[in-house]
Amino acid sequence: MAETPAADDLSAQVREVDALWRRTEDVVAELMRRVSGGVSQAKSAASRVRAIPSRLRDHRGALIGIGVGVVATAGLGITFAVVRARRARRPSAVWRRRVDGYRAILADPNRVLRPRVPIWRKVLGAVLVTASTVVVRGALKRWLLPYVERLLPVESIIR
User: Fold this and answer.
1) By residue range, what is the domain housing residue 23?
2) Which candidate in 3, 12, 103, 128 could, as Cys together with 7 as Cys, close a disulfide (CB 3.0–4.6 Å)?
């Protein structure tokens, strides 16, 4: 006896549900595998962190050597910095720098001395800054203020 169209449709839906069920089970199994792997990695990392103090106790000599090396390096760096600062403050060093400066000025005064900026350049810079400020403020008042006032009913934002 042939199956009716409703029975064919029903068996197709049952097959689809079974396929979806198998895929869901596979996804859940994969997620469980990943979670358990992550948990085991976290546990191993925590055990390695807990083992640090005992490992430091086991290698006490190396730890002391590294500490002494760090302190010695910092001490030498500070010592050299202090020695350089003291040498730079000696009167002979101050006079030498001053003489070198005068020698540079006498050798090429145009390279050492800055030329004075003409007043017209300063005035032009101030005018340009003022004009750009006025233009930007006017543009904001004309195009942005009506939009903002529609969004936020405020009496005055830029006035």
Assistant:
1) 11-47
2) 3
Give first-to-last CA distance, the chain, whole Å.
89
Cα separation of 145 and 148, whole Å?
5
Global pTM reads: 0.37
More confident of the two residues 155 and 24: 24
d(CA 96, CA 104): 12
Residue 95 corresponds to which tokens in the numbers above? Answer: 């006079």
Chain centroid, CA 83 distance in Å: 36
What is the domain count for the chain?
3
Residue 6 clears pLDDT 70, i.e. is over it: no
Taking residues 116-125, what's their average pLDDT? 91
Residues 6+ apart with CB under 8 A from 111: 104
Structure tokens at 152: 């936020």
